Amino acid sequence: MGIYGINGTAVLPGGGETETDRRRRLVEQAQQGDTEAFGELIEGHRSKAKGWAEQITGDPHLADDIVQDALIRAFLHIGSLHDTSRFLPWLHKLVRNQAFMRLRRGGPYKREKPFTSFGPPEGGADQVDWGDLDSILAHLTRSAARDAISDQDPANHLIRKELYETIHSVLHCLTRKERDIFEAYFFRQLSPDEIAVMYQMTTGSIYTYIHRARQKLRQEQIRVSLGLQPETGGNVMVRSKRLHLAPWPQQAAVKLTFIDRIGHMLATAGDRRETAELMGVSGFAFRMQLSNRTTYADGIYMFDWRETLRTFMQTLGYEVTMLCGQLPHSPVPLLGAVERFPVVLPIEEALIPFIRKLLDADKPVLYFDTSATKPFVHEWSLIYGYDDERRIVYLTDALLPEGKTLSYEAVTENPVRFLAAAGRLKEPDKLPSRWNEQKAAEQRIAEQAVRFAVEYARNSRAYCPMTTYLSYTSGLAAYERWIAHFRSGPGSPPNRYGAGQLAAVYAQTRAYAAEYLRSVPFNGEAMRFVLLASDAYEQASEALGELSSEVPFVRPAEMLSPALCEQCAVLLEKAKAFEAAAIGYLEKAIKQLEKGT
Questions:
Q1: Neighbours of 345 (CB within 10 A)
Q2: Fewer CB within 10 Å, N- or C-terminus of the chain?
Q3: What is the mean pLDDT of residues 242-252?
Q4: What is the pLDDT of residues 129-163, one digit of tens each?
């Protein structure tokens, strides 16, 4: 991140960086919500963390779970680490606390006790096939029931009976192959290498099967505990549907995918709007926001998603149906934007029916996709189809004209849940007698957009997350923050990848600002000042376009030299001067509108 070497790892201009410096840099980036930096940070320390856990518990399988819990907590609370050089001692403490907590709950196994530890009964009274998991679970359930009747304190045995019954019920969510591999790993205690030889598969594939089985069992356990019934079964019709999306030519696409997907969604409903109108009315033509730490692109996404979408669509004459949430115990990208979302469970019954219902009503679903095609990390897309038999949804992707598919499981496990669809409030009145009212409404909307542009430009803190270690600068002040990042010196280099996305997006938004302002229905002096503002935005867009050419939105290998940083800062100063002039003209236009001239 920042200045990149050949392998994509950041290095300092004077040569390599020490391991301590690299770790400190990654911690600082992870504190800003950079999931890639966090992944890189833990990649070299996962085995060490497992070693710490195994020393305490003496159980390698339990150690894996402890490390996973500790890493989740590390991601969620890394912002509380004030001394970034103390990451390893801090992580060690997290692992140790998790391990001791597990042990306090009743030893290294407790409810995770391996089935091999039970062993065959001495008397052999029950006919148990100790190579078959169903037979073992049935035997354990019967034994627990008998013990509950005869024991002075049957509570513990009843708990064990309930546990065995739960395990037995949830195992049926696995496919035959997943179940066989699960039995080999958890019951027969075979290693992934041994299982791979048995099934003539790679060890990596076995790990994938084990991980998938664990996730399915966790989801099924939630279903059972909530009393939910799976939707698949003999009496349930397997359905599928795929909407025909309206053509969306490349020239209509916009790099700000939130607006791009809304435009595509409206076009599919027969309401084709000019992109400049969508950008202007929504206010995104005039927004600019930068992280206070470095040139991460996350500032683009920092706004109130729910209220912004609801207000914008209401202005266009639509009401919105939304489903939002964040998963517990999952590293959540763009935390500053989604921190207010409710915590939700990763179960299909809370999600897939919502998608089916909207698609069955011929409404594509706006979806925040955290598996977008690189160089994007995450973007908005449209879900336009589902297939129950294949258990997939069809959705768009910013870089794939043909679209792609995601499994129901992948959609359910998305750490950020944001889905929405729109329905028209009422059909617009086309009668000539309403023409004057329509024109007045258009002028009122345009005036609101112009006022928003001015207010946003003058507000340096338009969006303030509750998460204290995340902060952003907005409006004209964002230019100063951006310039400062480029002039921060070799000790704190800007993030090149993020700078590329920022430049590409904001160069385009300023071009749309210019185009939108040329179309507003003002008259007289107000329109003259608006046209002058349009020209100034055009100049700002050109300066930002030059910046985008110098720092393109790709994942580069070459270094971002000090000379190039200074060149970028100069271009930003130029863009800021033009945008400041544009805002001045818009303020004069507002005064003319207030005078009625």
A1: 16
A2: C
A3: 87
A4: 545 555 655 665 566 556 555 555 555 555 555 55
Angle ∠(259,316,248) on CA atoms, nearest 5: 40
Comparing 451 with 429, the larger pLDDT belongs to 451
The separation between CA 401 and the C-alpha centre of its own chain, rounded to angstroms, equals 21
Nearest 10 degrees: Cα torsion 438, 285, 554, 499: -160
Q: Where are the alpha helices (DSSP H) in 431-495?
A: 435-458, 476-486
> Cα torsion for 315, 316, 320, 324, to the nearest 10°?
-70
Q: Is the pLDDT of residue 4 over 60?
A: no
Axis-axis angle for helices 35-43, 19-31 (nearest 10): 140
For residue 125, list its beta bridge partners: none
**Looking at residues 26-40, what average pLDDT do you find?**
70
**Which pLDDT belongs to residue 305?**
97
Is 514 exposed, middle or buried (CB count within 10 Å of its CB: 0-12, 13-18, 19+)? buried
Cα separation, 53 vs 64, whole angstroms: 8
- Cβ neighbours around 323 below 10 Å, total: 17
Closest residue by Cα to residue 459 from 448, 451, 468, 467: 451
Cα 538 to Cα 547: distance, rounded to the nearest angstrom? 14
List phi, psi (to 5°) of 537.
-65, -35
**pLDDT at residue 26 above 50?**
yes
Which two tokens mark 528? 């003259």
Cα angle 351-417-353, degrees, rounded to a multiple of 5: 10
Task: Give dist(CA 31, CA 42) in Å, integer.
Answer: 13
How high is the pLDDT of residue 145?
58
The token duo for 486 is: 């480029």
DSSP 186-255: IIS---HHHHHHHHT--HHHHHHHHHHHHHHHHHHHHHHHHTPPPS-STTS---EEE--PPP--GGG--S
Read off the tokens for 11.
Answer: 């290095």
pTM: 0.67
In the block, tokens 């992944």 appear at: 39
User: What confidence tens digit (pLDDT) does each residue in 38-61 have?
Assistant: 777 777 788 888 889 888 888 777
With beta carbons less than 8 A apart as the criterion, state whether 537 and 465 touch. no
- The answer to whether the beta carbons of residues 200 and 244 sit under 8 Å apart is no
pLDDT of residue 431: 44
Angle subtended at Cα 118 by Cα 113 and Cα 124, rounded to the nearest 5 degrees: 160
Residue 79 confidence (pLDDT) above 50:
yes
If one compares 404 and 248, the residue with the highest pLDDT of the two is 404
Between CA 333 and CA 557 the distance in angstroms is: 24
- Lowest-confidence segment of 21-35, 367-381, 401-415 by average pLDDT: 21-35
